[in-house]
Amino acid sequence: MPAADEGCAEKVTKRICDTIEEAYIEDEETKIRLTLSLGVACMENSDTDISLESLIMRTDQALYAAKADGRNQVEIWDKSFN
Question: Whole-model pTM?
Fold first, then answer.
C-alpha cells in the first residue's frame, strides 16, 4: 500500500480479516468459515537502504507472529522480531 503508514496498513488489514471472517463457503450440508492471519511490514523514510528481500523477510516474521497468536490476527513487524 504505497504511502500508507503503519496505522493505516493495520486498519486496512484488520478490515480484510473481519470481512473474510464474516463470509463463508456453503454447500448443501455445510458452512465453512474462513479466517486469515496477516503480517505487515512498513518502510519508513529512514529505511532508505532496505532491500525488497529484507522487507519480505520482515513481513514473513510478522506473519508467523500473527499465526502464533491464534486465528484471525494481524501483526505489525517491529524491531523486537529480530
Answer: 0.80
